[in-house]
TrEMBL record:
The keyword Zinc does not apply. Residues 103-130 form a coiled coil. This is DinB superfamily. Residues 10-166 form the DinB-like domain. Keywords: Coiled coil.
């Protein structure tokens, strides 16, 4: 997948997630399915918390990313390979690190958070499209579960990540 394809997929998947959130009643949005499981509001807030640092990093100067994290000289993983690696880490007990864990009670409205999320996706996509292909495929940054991965692989992860939380959202509201 090239950068344009990835950005289209990001818009599609995050829009689908946001549409599902808007279909929920306020009660369903805030309903806690069971102890230790996130409600719809927490899934949404988690995605905002996860995309914010991506926007920040992808808008840094290329030299700054390279100086801090370096480049790889290997083939990028495919979307499917990256998804499989992520699922293995989750099966091994991988969880979101503290900065990405939403509070128990979310104070922002679903309208505020969905607008914020889609604005972040727009900024993230703009940053992806500004990168040279060589930089997108060789600069690396850290993922909390996967370690150092390329900017392209991180974009793949952002695409799967929303899918993962869409599935979690479905479970949260069907409980």
């Amino acid at each position: 997948m090239n950068q344009v394809d990835i950005t289209k997929e990001l818009v599609e998947k995050y829009s689908e997630f946001v549409q599902r959130i808007h279909q929920l009643s306020e009660e369903a949005y805030r309903f806690h399915p069971s102890p230790g499981k996130w409600n719809a509001a927490q899934h949404l807030k988690h995605l905002v918390l996860a995309v914010q640092p991506l926007v920040y990093v992808y808008t840094l100067p290329v030299a700054a990313i390279e100086a801090k994290f370096g480049r790889v000289e290997r083939r990028n993983q495919t979307y499917e390979e990256l998804k499989a690696a992520y699922l293995v880490k989750l099966k091994e007990g991988g969880k979101a690190p503290e900065p990405f864990v939403p509070q128990e009670e979310i104070t922002e409205s679903k309208e505020e958070l969905t607008e914020q999320l889609m604005a972040l996706i727009s900024q993230y996509n703009a940053a992806i499209l500004k990168l040279a292909k060589a930089d997108f495929e060789s600069l690396q940054i850290p993922h909390p579960l996967l370690g150092l991965i390329t900017l392209k692989e991180m974009a793949y992860n952002a695409s799967y990540h929303v899918e993962h939380h869409y599935n979690g959202l479905q479970l949260a509201v069907s409980s």
